[in-house]
């Protein structure tokens, strides 16, 4: 038995910080929340840990999910960043691809977001490789010295992104540049493209490097401050940070590669969703996470979430593995407003400061949380287990003044309208990752978590015909719980671009072995022993002439026919057809995985099936099944037992989250204490 038997997982969101403690001896989980502190985000994390009262000297593992990097880009709070590239290519990042986002295709007034880098902060240096990685012109080190002086001394740049043409084939020019920059200006952060990703497409590789350079100074400070604060409280265990594509990495590795953390907050819930899909025997799951500022949905098919190798952050491409998440600005803090007589919800959020009107922190514009108070779903006196009473009268007045009166509606109708608009946006987001990709949402289970997930998920299930809603224990902290089951993961890749039937298999095996050695070294540096390390070889493939790719896991044998068959099968499943065209290898990849011990899902003894013991009250609330106010039974979730069943309309209150069950729906408590919500005819 470990002398330090506790694990802590902390997920920081736009409104609240969720902290969860797991006792590995007993399997007991404890959960607390604290408010996010945007100006000094580490303080909110430490406050959530303090709320748990955990003895950090007994904590063996602290794992953390954060959207700090994401928010730094969205809010333009990164460090002053410069770019060094080849002479004549200084505008590669500013020009980009020149394309217009799909949702703004017909908007003739569309303007691209402001660049992260000013043009005067870009510079070109002589030195060039050809498309085979052969040197055409040596690196001009004197010229490099002059542009570095201009960027750092004249322009005040504190972070530099280095990206040269074709350097993915030979990184020597980039590595020499980084060596000299660190020698001349040790105080400046230097990010090198081939340290991050060795793949073709100069703009995408440059963008990835720039984003890392942009967020790295503030990310390093954040992690340093958090490490210092934890150490002062007695923590001496391992500190891991979630990755956007699943798995985790040590805090030291994260400081070197912060771009891999930009979507790490939502990733925790998807890792947990994949684990539950396996344990609960439900291979097809839709994760449905609604927090204070956003809604994140992801498909888990056959027990695995879809991972893409190119993400996008405010239209800037990122060449990194990330879960295929559909995110919209619709959360509990999303602001309701009127635009030319039409009711809209989000994407602007009240955030943690000032927060919804009902928080009493100075907010004046009504949010989804305020609407839920007006509709009777949330008990103002027991919000966050009574630690943060809400001001119901202020919420009602804000909805009346801002929404109801301008639209000629009652407060109840206006609040229901806010939910209707949010539901319409939600259906659109879920359709994008299900129906539009050939998935039938009716065969999926909807896993509802986040503070507002159980509030909205039963409505979504009614609208889309989803067969089942699963509400896990402590849904508002489920992303933190999911982090506890995350492996240590790192990904490495190299571009090849050759036809599968013409590839030199021995050369491909040799390159996969070289990439695998990098992955294994990375795992060792993060404390993973060779006994628990596992390497997964992957090939990124496409039909010759296509632009987009699919990733296929391959074994050591590298049988071209088997690889082709697996690719055809995946293409058929994803796009509804396969072709007889030649298959092209674009990228060779290796994922290094260090297995961790997952928390066991407890099984509780069955009760007598009568939930009366948990019935604490009845309350008038709005029932979307009848579109009218109705009498809702209110249950205390902590008193429900496996085997209990009851119909809607009902509210299940567990302090930090409320599950809203409408008429025509039915609830059953499973052996793990999870709520399973179905239509009454399917109960």
Automatic annotation (TrEMBL):
Q: Which residues form the Hydantoinase A/oxoprolinase domain?
A: 205-490
UniProt domain Hydantoinase/oxoprolinase N-terminal: residue ranges: 7-183
User: Pfam families, per this entry?
Assistant: Hydant_A_C, Hydant_A_N, Hydantoinase_A
Top-rank taxon, per record: Bacteria
Q: Where is the Acetophenone carboxylase-like C-terminal domain?
A: 508-673
**PANTHER family recorded:** 5-OXOPROLINASE RELATED (PTHR11365), HYPOTHETICAL 5-OXOPROLINASE (EUROFUNG)-RELATED (PTHR11365:SF23)
Q: What name has this protein been given in UniProt? A: Hydantoinase/oxoprolinase family protein
Q: Which organism is it from?
A: Herbiconiux daphne
Lineage, highest ranks first: Bacteria, Bacillati, Actinomycetota, Actinomycetes, Micrococcales
